[in-house]
Amino acid sequence: MANRGPIHLKLVVLGDQYVGKTSVIERYVYGKFDSCYTVTLAGHFSTKFVNFEDRDVKLLIFDTAGQEDARTVIRSLYRDAHGILLVFDCARRDTLDHVTEWMELLKQNCFAMPEVVLAGNKCDLPNTFKAVNRLQGEELAGLHQIPFFEISAKHDLNVKEAFQSLVHRVLSIR
Ligand code: GDP
Ligand code: MG
Question: What does the alpha-carbon distance between residue 166 and residue 146 come to, in Å, rounded to a whole number?
């Protein structure tokens, strides 16, 4: 077949501030974890090439900053995305509650509803720190009919799997 250049996919990592969006991207793209918190610059993206189900795929992974005042900027980033990794923090219940709001924003603002995968980050934390258990994550994901992964950017748990699931879903509808 002609024209077998890489497929370009735009992925955006969304979720409240401090849930670990930047850390998840750094883990997936650069294979590292830095425990320092750095404020994310709007519109920053990383590139990753993957060979997926025999296709060359170039992922453009956009990081976002979750502050309220950045909502307009974020909207312009996600509205033409192919896939969204929607992240919450297992240690903060409100970040799970906000998932429904994020889904609503996507429905309202996207040109076409992107594929979404839900990720509960920081699952490495001991149970005493956890405000959300796996069942609650699964239940919410079920409600929105999206996959759910418990992940840890810190301990490198399921981060790759969550991105792969997202890419798989995006590619399977193209
Ligand atoms: P963002 O605001 O969503 O981009 O969040 P960051 O990636 O900056 O992470 C916020 C804080 O959570 C930082 O102090 C990170 O070191 C920490 N963090 C991120 N991912 C994990 C994780 O998987 N486990 C733990 N225990 N801490 C994490
Ligand atoms: Mg960040």
Answer: 10
Closest residue (by CA) to atom 13 of ligand 1?
Answer: 37
Residue to mutate, 14, 17, 18, ligand 1, most ligand atoms under 8 Å from C-beta: 18
Provide residues with CB under 6 Å of ligand 1: 17-23, 35, 37, 40, 121-122, 124-125, 152-154
At 16-29, the pLDDT tens digits run: 999 999 999 999 99
pTM of the model: 0.94
Parallel, antiparallel, or unpaired: how do β-strands 115-121 and 148-150 relate?
A: parallel
Q: What is the pLDDT of residues 43-56, one digit of tens each?
A: 789 999 999 988 99
Instruction: Determine the Cα–Cα distance for residues 131 and 115; give it in Å rounded to an integer.
Output: 26
What mean pLDDT comes out for the span 105-127?
97
CA distance 36 to 126: 20
Closest to 13 in 3D by CA, of 94, 107, 112, 121: 121
Q: Which of 169, 173, 166, 170 is nearest to 25 (CA)?
A: 166
Compute the distance between CA of residue 164 and CA of residue 155 in angstroms, rounded to an integer: 18
Q: What is the ipTM of this complex?
A: 0.99
Strand partners, 154: none
Whether the predicted pLDDT of 68 surpasses 70: no
Residues linked to residue 45 through DSSP beta bridges, in sequence order: 62
